[in-house]
UniProtKB/TrEMBL annotation:
This is Legume lectin domain-containing protein. Residues 1-26 form the signal peptide. SUPFAM superfamilies: Concanavalin A-like lectins/glucanases. GO terms for molecular function: carbohydrate binding. The chain crosses the membrane at residues 302-327. PANTHER family: CONCANAVALIN A-LIKE LECTIN FAMILY PROTEIN. InterPro entries: ConA-like_dom_sf (IPR013320), Legume_lectin_dom (IPR001220), Leguminous_Lectin (IPR050258). Residues 30-277 form the Legume lectin domain. It comes from Lithospermum erythrorhizon.
Length: 366
């Protein structure tokens, strides 16, 4: 009996261990730097390029670019990540990023960009590119630009906007930061959240002053399929900035600082499914993005939801019964035969006497 219970406990521990490994594996590829002091040991996980350096001020922070005719730098996470899972599922991966930054006020410069570049990108080369990025050749990139320069060549709306660039500095979509009463070049510390959901294939960017809560409504919400952009290739993530180049903003003195930075890559559960959004629908009106559903489609979805709910309920009941069997099922102790209580014998004679007396009483009454 003890051996059976012991084997069941081992089986339960094995199941829990597999579940734990599955959940922790989904959170690989993450880091968090509250600051950039020596104690944080950030240099073991991120690398500095160009003019990027650590500055000692009110606290230690990263200065990505400084003053000069052209100053550019970048900070990159050393670990290569993949936005597509391994075979056979090849599920897309989601990510969330948060960072605190600031621009020096009343100075011209290109701005700052969160970038994703392919593995093998020449991180030490800048060539006077906007945000320190290379646009030509096979330098495929994704950039979320916090642009402080109005460049008419790429159709910038102003010198205070956020845009999404895919392989080109001509933004796929952009939004005026003044619409949320913020100014990038104010000199104040700003915080930004960049979230990508692999199920809905949607990229969202939020922005606010430091100390404020994360806005419920994103500044930018853009449909894009990043798994198709790089397929199974590894990518590098980082922050890149430049203070201007010789043709657009010579002798720029804009300074860009990074105060904290975090990133988390995750794999959504396999049972979650959402209809992928069409990346070509960016220029459509929001009401056109909602598909018209037929009655048959609704019925099929209701039936599918019912089947899914029934399956989940059955699985939950099975798990409860399984755990109850392991932990709660205890057999009652069996009493040895030698100590069993003797069976009581029925007094037949007494029963017979009672019956005879009853018969005599009945005859006398008659």
């Amino acid at each position: 009996m003890v051996k059976i219970l012991y084997s069941r406990y081992l089986l339960l521990l094995l199941v829990l261990n597999v579940f734990y490994l599955g959940t922790t594996r989904a959170e690989m590829g993450k880091f968090y730097f509250k600051d950039f002091t020596k104690d944080s040991n950030f240099k073991s996980e991120i690398a500095l390029y160009g003019d990027a350096k650590v500055v000692n001020g009110s606290g230690e922070f990263l200065q990505i670019c400084g003053s000069g005719a052209y100053s550019a730098g970048r900070v990159m996470y050393k670990e290569k990540i993949k936005l597509v899972g391994e075979k056979p599922r090849k599920l897309g991966k989601s990510f969330s990023m948060y960072f605190v930054f600031s621009f020096s006020n009343d100075n011209k410069g290109d701005g700052l960009a969160f970038v994703m570049v392919r593995d093998g990108y020449n991180l030490e080369k800048f060539d006077n590119g906007s945000f320190g990025l290379l646009e030509k050749g096979e330098n495929k990139f994704l950039a979320i630009e916090f642009d402080t320069l109005k460049d008419k060549e790429v159709g910038d709306m102003n010198d205070n906007h956020v845009g999404v660039d895919v392989g080109s500095f001509i933004s796929v979509t952009s939004r005026n930061v003044s619409s949320i009463n913020l100014k990038l070049k104010s000199g104040e510390k700003l915080q930004s959240w960049i979230d990508y959901d692999a199920n809905s294939q949607r990229l969202e960017v939020r922005l606010s002053k430091l100390g404020k809560d994360k806005p419920f409504k994103p500044l930018i919400s853009c449909p894009i399929n990043l798994s198709h952009l790089w397929k199974e290739d590894g990518v590098l993530v980082g922050l890149s900035a430049s203070s201007g180049n010789s043709t657009k903003s010579a002798n720029s003195t804009q300074i860009c600082n990074i105060y904290s930075w975090s990133f988390k890559l995750s794999t959504p559960p396999q049972w979650i499914h959402s209809e992928a959004l069409n990346p070509n629908a960016i220029n459509l009106r929001s009401e056109n993005l909602i598909p018209k559903q037929k009655k048959n489609d609704c019925a099929l979805k209701v039936l599918g939801a019912f089947i899914f709910g029934t399956a989940c309920g059955a699985l939950g009941a099975f798990m409860v019964l399984f755990i109850w069997t392991i932990l709660g099922n205890r057999r009652l102790p069996v009493v040895p035969v030698d100590y069993a209580l003797p069976a009581k014998e029925v007094d037949c004679e007494m029963t017979k006497i009672v019956d005879e007396k009853t018969i005599k009483d009945d005859e006398m009454k008659k």
